[in-house]
Design brief:
308 residues, alpha/beta, Rossmann fold, 2 domains, 6 strands, globular, binds adenosine-5'-triphosphate, binds magnesium ion
Length: 308
């Protein structure tokens, strides 16, 4: 088969299937390797990353012009897992007008006055746009689960906070994602799966390189100490919220270049399935365009004659 007509999903298969979990079958985070390379080296990976950037830029133009689907990309991971740099790299060359990145930090007082999904709902992408969530409502089943004092600060009526709260959050999130997908939002969720050892290396780099100092926060060390609790929370979160409408992609993140191959490939393969195309101009418009074009050409001819 000639290369051009081969679907991206086939060409990129080695970087898609092994990492995707859509809720069918079992899920064990522990069996996912953090240092997988998919048989690539950095040089080969760079070529794939660049090809995917081009594909993404083309798909994004059509997504925007067609103005029907929207794409929601969620990024989760421990500190220094590479969320920021992956977003920066994968979206290089994509028209910023069609994308919006929202970084979710500790909720403000105003945000705490609402239900936990509120701030994310108002940040959802419009039709034709790509919305990128750097952290998301999933923090509500991660940091909030690991630190019970954060849950206590949320202003939920006491009676509603029971031992079932995490199960309920998984259910509510899944229901909202199903609703969004039924309304034309394509959802892809990336968990950047980094090892504790690699996080140590990256923290050391942040401490040693003055240009990276700002990225380090003392609080990060406190979260690192809770590594096992976070892993358990991620395991549960992925297990209970992965669905065909909103799959989780467990991205091996020890090698940043491989993480970018997996993320970019997943996005372009999903966009390819939408059969995006530029809106077709109807017959009446086409004949009007023809007349306008002729008038414009006549204008130029006229101007030339006058100049000459
Ligand atoms: P970097 O990797 O550069 O440190 P970051 O995403 O960690 O980026 P920070 O400014 O450090 O950005 O802050 C984000 C913090 O906000 C994280 O510790 C995260 O757990 C926390 N956070 C996000 N959402 C919530 C939430 N709903 N409730 C409580 N804490 C939250
Ligand atoms: Mg941080």
């Amino acid at each position: 088969m000639n290369k051009k007509s081969q679907p991206l999903a086939d060409e990129l298969k080695p970087y898609l299937a092994p990492f995707r979990y859509d809720g069918t079958g079992e899920f064990h985070l522990k069996s996912h390797k953090t240092d997988a390379k998919g048989g690539l080296d950095k040089e080969k990976a760079t070529r794939i990353i660049e090809a995917n950037r081009k594909r993404l830029a083309e798909f994004q133009e059509k997504l925007y012009a067609q103005d029907r689907w929207s794409l929601l990309l969620i990024f989760q991971g421990m500190d220094a897992a590479g969320k920021d740099s992956a977003i920066k790299s994968v979206f290089e060359g994509v028209n910023p007008q069609g994308c919006e990145v929202t970084a979710f930090k500790v909720p403000s007082t105003k945000e705490l006055d609402h239900d936990f999904l509120w701030r994310s709902m108002i940040a959802l992408p419009e039709r034709g746009r790509i919305g990128i969530f750097n952290r998301s409502y999933y923090e509500e089943c991660l940091v909030v689960r690991v630190h019970s004092e954060i849950l206590a600060r949320q202003k939920i009526p006491q009676k509603l906070v029971t031992k079932d709260i995490w199960k309920e959050r998984f259910e509510d999130i899944s229901a909202v994602e199903r609703y969004l997908s039924r309304n034309g939002t394509v959802i892809l969720k990336f968990f950047l799966n980094v090892s504790k050892k690699e996080q140590r290396e990256r923290f050391l780099e942040r401490l040693e390189d003055p240009a990276k100092n700002w990225k380090f926060s003392l609080a990060d060390i406190g979260e690192r100490a809770l590594w096992a609790k976070y892993q358990a929370a991620y395991q549960d979160m992925i297990h209970y919220t992965a669905s065909r409408a909103a799959p989780w992609i467990v991205v091996p993140a020890d090698h940043k270049w491989f993480a970018r191959v997996v993320i970019g490939s997943t996005i372009v393969a999903a966009l390819e399935q939408l059969d995006l195309h530029f809106p077709k101009v109807d017959k009446a418009d086409r004949s009007e365009f023809k007349q306008v074009r002729e008038a414009l050409l006549a204008e130029e001819d006229g101007a030339k004659k006058k100049d000459g």
